[in-house]
């Protein structure tokens, strides 16, 4: 993928293990997207979508190929790329405010400034009144909102989310999707969002990337217009729109049957 | 079947009942004359021994001095073991090479009965506090180091990845994530180590000492003062309980999230 893309995976392969037991988690994957995109990656388990995120996050070095952000190659983690995990992975010994201020704290931002940063995002995700509580006093949805606020308090250019709403109940998940979308629309953030929920991907993404397992490959990439529409029309209206349903079914077909048979 | 422990007035009442029953059995046994008074003093005699020692001291030493000597030795050896054992365990948990280099030494020391090398320590450091503090240090150190190492290995990986992606460097991850994550495990080790250090200090005082609660019990046995022996045992039990209770209170304050997150 050419360097003109803001984020570019170029022929990225990741192999775990050696010899006969080796697993090819990613096989020559190329993918590029521009600043401000909301890229949703869907696929069955084992298709390498989490590995794709880990490579961009800097948790996993590619066995082959390269990943670049704004033209420079990714080596290791960096605060320009915030991560939200499926399990919130909060720091249980810190208060809600302490968790939200963690990124600025380790980066040496002054006490006053980081408290303001934390307050700003805690207000946006609706946790400000819980600022002195501890994570174990929060519900699953609130914990995930805190994980989001913690990542955003670092002002990342790219937000990486690995099935962040997978462990939430349906109602909470829907609310979280809407909140995430409004945060994204109000920012210039680029989002890479991993999910196995097809509806979630089509609803949230400007781009939907479909992957298939063994070896992990990208089989299709589709543009989705709904991410820009949902704010004006309301999410339930969008999700029952015939065009939305058609795209959802197309993506589902790709996952279930592969690129050869889908859409015929 | 797992059942929640009782708390409140019911628990207090039940506990008071069994203590009263034990005291009554003791009193009945002493009063029956089945056991000679030199071998088993009655509760009343123990109480008067307590009054006597509080008033006049025991063989030139006060009770407070002996209790302070025992607790001081215990906490000094234990404290040194905490200061060295926690960083050592963290290092072993973080660095597989350190674990490979030191793991066997720690695992050799851990089950070794401390009294087996006490004689050697007395030869090296004399019969004073030095040999006892060294003994307690060596008793507590491997327990604490093992617990800290286990704690490091149990840190959830996403927590470390989250901190790194937020911009934390290696030492910031160690200080802000690994250490607090390992604290519940470290405190479990501290409780075991403190109990081991306390029982070892008393045993050491029974072997060679010039003061301390263990020495008081040993000395009383030479004069067949079973009232003082029993008094010493009771005080030792109460002090041991108080030490472990104090540590538990500290633990609950420090690792308040444990078991809830």
Order of helices and strands of chain A: EEEHEEEHHHHEHEHEEHHH
What's the number of helices of chain A?
Answer: 10
Silhouette of chain B? globular
Radius of gyration of chain A: 19 Å
CATH class of chain B: Mainly Alpha
CATH architecture of the largest domain in chain A: 3-Layer(aba) Sandwich
Q: Classify the secondary structure makeup of chain B into a structural class.
A: mainly alpha
What is the helical fraction of chain A, as a range of percent?
A: 25-40%
Main β-sheet, spatial strand arrangement of chain A: 6-7-8-3-9-10
Tell me about the largest β-sheet of chain B: none
Strand content of chain A: 15-25%
> Which consecutive residue ranges of chain B, at least 5 long each, have pLDDT under 50?
none
Average pLDDT, all residues of chain B? 91
Shape of chain A: globular
At the fourth level of CATH, the homologous superfamily of the largest domain in chain A is P-loop containing nucleotide triphosphate hydrolases
Mean pLDDT of chain A: 90
Q: How many helical elements of chain B?
A: 10
Unreliable segments of 5+ consecutive residues of chain A: none
- The CATH topology of the largest domain in chain A is Rossmann fold
Helix content of chain B: over 70%
* Name of the CATH homologous superfamily of chain B: MetI-like
Tell me what you see in this structure.
The complex is a heterodimer of chains A (264) and B (261). By secondary structure, chain A is α/β, with parallel strands linked by helices. Chain A has helices at 49-57, 96-100, 102-106, 111-124, 140-152, 170-185, 198-204, 226-233, 235-240, 242-257, and strands at residues 7-16, 23-33, 38-42, 64-69, 72-73, 81-84, 158-162, 190-195, 207-212, 217-223. In chain A, the strands form two sheets. In chain A, strands 6-7-8-3-9-10 form a six-stranded mixed beta sheet, sandwiched between helices. Chain A has a four-stranded antiparallel beta sheet with strand order 2-1-4-5, with helices on one face. Chain B has one domain (41-254): MetI-like (MetI-like fold, Orthogonal Bundle). Chain B has helices at residues 9-32, 43-56, 63-94, 96-109, 118-125, 129-153, 157-165, 170-207, 213-222, 226-254. The longest helix of chain B has 38 residues, at 170-207. The radius of gyration of chain B is 23 Å and the shape is globular. Chain B starts with 8 loop residues before the first helix and ends in a 7-residue tail after the last helix. The model of chain B has no long low-confidence stretch (mean pLDDT 91). Classes of the chains: A alpha/beta (264), B mainly alpha (261). The A-B interface holds A 57-59, 77-79, 81-83, 85, 87, 89-93, 102-103, 106-107, 134-136, 147, 150-151, 154, 160 and B 156, 158-159, 161-169, 172, 176-177, 180, 183, 255-257, 260-261.
């Amino acid at each position: 993928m050419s360097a003109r893309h803001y984020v570019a995976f170029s022929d990225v392969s990741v192999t775990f293990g050696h010899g006969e037991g080796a697993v090819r988690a990613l096989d020559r994957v190329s993918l590029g997207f521009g600043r401000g995109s909301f890229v949703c990656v869907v696929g069955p388990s084992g298709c390498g979508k989490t590995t794709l995120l880990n490579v961009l996050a800097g948790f996993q070095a590619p066995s082959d190929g390269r990943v670049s952000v704004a033209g420079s190659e990714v080596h290791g983690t960096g605060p320009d790329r915030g991560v939200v995990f499926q399990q919130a992975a909060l720091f249980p010994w810190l208060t809600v405010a302490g968790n939200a201020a963690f990124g600025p704290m380790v980066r040496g931002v002054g006490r006053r400034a980081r408290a303001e940063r934390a307050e700003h995002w805690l207000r946006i995700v609706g946790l400000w009144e819980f600022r002195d509580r501890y994570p174990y006093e929060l519900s699953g949805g609130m914990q995930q909102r805190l994980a989001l606020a913690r990542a955003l308090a670092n002002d990342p250019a790219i937000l990486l989310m690995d099935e962040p709403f997978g462990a939430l109940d349906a109602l909470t998940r829907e609310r979280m999707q809407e909140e995430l979308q409004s945060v994204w629309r109000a920012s210039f953030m680029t989002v890479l969002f991993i999910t196995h929920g097809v509806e979630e991907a089509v609803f949230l993404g400007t781009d939907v990337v479909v992957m298939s397992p063994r070896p992990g490959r990208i089989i299709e990439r589709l543009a989705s217009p709904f991410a820009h529409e949902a704010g004006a029309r309301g999410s339930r209206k969008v999700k029952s729109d015939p065009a939305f349903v058609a795209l959802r079914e197309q993506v589902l077909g790709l996952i279930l049957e592969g690129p050869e048979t889908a859409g015929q | 079947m797992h059942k929640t422990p009782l708390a409140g007035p019911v628990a207090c009442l039940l506990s008071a009942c069994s203590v009263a029953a034990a005291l009554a059995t003791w009193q009945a046994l002493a009063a029956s004359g089945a056991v000679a008074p030199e071998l088993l003093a009655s509760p009343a005699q123990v109480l008067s021994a307590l009054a006597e020692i509080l008033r006049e001291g025991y063989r030139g030493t006060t009770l407070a001095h002996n209790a302070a000597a025992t607790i001081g030795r215990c906490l000094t050896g234990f404290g040194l073991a905490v200061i060295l054992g926690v960083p050592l365990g963290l290092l072993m948990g973080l660095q597989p090479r350190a674990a490979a280099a030191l793991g066997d030494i720690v695992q050799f020391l851990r089950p070794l009965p401390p009294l087996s090398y006490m004689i050697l320590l007395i030869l090296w450091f004399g019969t004073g506090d030095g040999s006892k503090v060294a003994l307690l240090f060596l008793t507590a150190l491997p327990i604490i180091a093992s617990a800290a190492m286990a704690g490091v290995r149990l840190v959830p990986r996403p927590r470390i990845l989250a901190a790194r992606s937020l911009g934390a460097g290696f030492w910031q991850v160690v200080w802000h994530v690994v250490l607090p994550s390992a604290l519940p495990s470290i405190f479990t080790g501290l409780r075991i180590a403190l109990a081991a250090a306390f029982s070892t200090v008393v045993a050491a005082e029974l072997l060679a000492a010039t003061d301390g609660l263990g020495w008081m019990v040993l000395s009383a046995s030479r004069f067949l003062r079973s009232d003082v022996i029993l008094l010493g045992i009771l005080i030792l039990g109460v002090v041991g309980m108080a030490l472990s209770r104090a540590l538990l209170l500290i633990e609950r304050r420090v690792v308040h999230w444990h078991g809830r997150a």
